[in-house]
Amino acid sequence: MPLQQTAMSQTVMSQTTTHMLPVFARADLAFERGEGPWLIATNGDRYLDFTSGVAVNALGHAHPHLVQAVQNQAAKLWHVSNLFRIAEGEQLAARLCTASGFADTAFFCNSGAEAMEACIKMARKYQAVNGKPERYRIITFEGAFHGRTLATLAAGGQEKYLEGFGPRVEGFDQVTLGDLEATKKAIGPNTAAILIEPLQGEGGVRAPPPAFFRALRQLCDDNDLMLIFDEVQTGMGRTGELFAHTRFGITPDIMALAKALGGGFPMGACLSTAKAGKGMTAGTHGSTFGGNLLAAAAGNATLDVMLAPGFFDHVQRMSLLLTQKLASVCDRYPDVIHEVRGEGLLIGVRAVVPSGDLVVALRNEKLLTVGAGENVVRMLPPLIVNEAELDDAIGRLERACIALSPDAQKRKAG
């Protein structure tokens, strides 16, 4: 990259950062292009990206099929609004519903939080049109993260995110993750639904056993409740199959998707059975930008790649290799990391040292990761990652562990 371009990028960055609302603790690092699992910084440094935009860039950066699809659509038509039919969106909805194994309808929006809002509204509306408007409360689970809107923050129930925003949105009852008896006790005459992530990402890459999810399905069937799965992070291949719930042997009534749905293009979706969506008639919900032509092109292109033969076989092989290699590092550096958890390529490494220190040490080794609850560092490589790139990442992790080891810290202090 020409020196003049580098200087220009850095100048523009310094001129604009002070005008950004400071709600993100941003690293002093910016990128200008990407190639598969690699990001190239404005100073030319190459980083191995095991953050993937926080599970968004599932096909890596600048995937040729995705780029071509969006470029082709951009040259024709971007946006017409949902006042009119959008054939490409109808095609994407049909493909997602078929692949889900349960859904009859899809609503498109722009983010995971919006998708979750649609799920919440749908579950309440279902009860109302069935003559039970008093049933509006939703059971959720501690450690969950469902979004940043006022309703989704209340659903997650984490005080650090709720503080200072006034009274929390009414209607959410939180219980301990995996506690079936507490879940049963929380069901009352005002309960409308149960909402859960198949695998918590922000909460520390953790989940109860499959039997718990099957029990939730039975509870919902027995009490005419909607079972809602938040697959914003787990969906679209992240756990080694298109949707994480398929490994439980059950299906939800309503499901939220986003993150990897557009391969990096902002897009969310709420999928549901016809029964669950019976109250969502014209005028009950909407989105100005949701599912426009560019988004639909990105979503269809992402599905093209993911539904190709062998794609998920590759993800599962890479998952097995990565967890094995990480376990070996745990054995060699028990004073730095001590547990590997997760499914597919949503992998968490539980640290002994502060997880933030490990994230920084890895970034110093040009490996990008992201923190989570329970002192966990998430590794979220793109699903197209190969074995050589995994080996490269493990080498960087080992160097970070050496830098954070007690002996190294003593030498540094001395």
Task: Please provide a brief summary of the model.
With 414 residues, the protein is an alpha/beta fold. The protein has helices spanning 3-16, 52-55, 64-74, 87-100, 112-129, 150-156, 159-162, 180-186, 210-223, 293-306, 311-332, 355-364, 387-404, 406-413; strands at residues 31-35, 38-41, 46-49, 105-109, 137-141, 172-175, 191-196, 226-230, 254-257, 268-272, 337-343, 346-351, 367-368, 370-372, 376-379.
Describe the structure.
With 414 residues, the protein is α/β, with parallel strands linked by helices. 40% of the residues lie in helices and 17% in strands. It contains 14 helices and 15 strands. The protein has helices at 3-16, 52-55, 64-74, 87-100, 112-129, 150-156, 159-162, 180-186, 210-223, 293-306, 311-332, 355-364, 387-404, 406-413, and strands at residues 31-35, 38-41, 46-49, 105-109, 137-141, 172-175, 191-196, 226-230, 254-257, 268-272, 337-343, 346-351, 367-368, 370-372, 376-379. It has a seven-stranded mixed sheet, with helices on both faces. A four-stranded mixed sheet has the order 1-2-3-13. Strands 11-12-15-14 form a four-stranded antiparallel sheet, with helices on one face. Strand 1 and strand 2 (38-41) form a beta hairpin. Helix 3 runs antiparallel to helix 10. The two termini are 40 Å apart. Mean pLDDT is 94; it is low at 1-15.
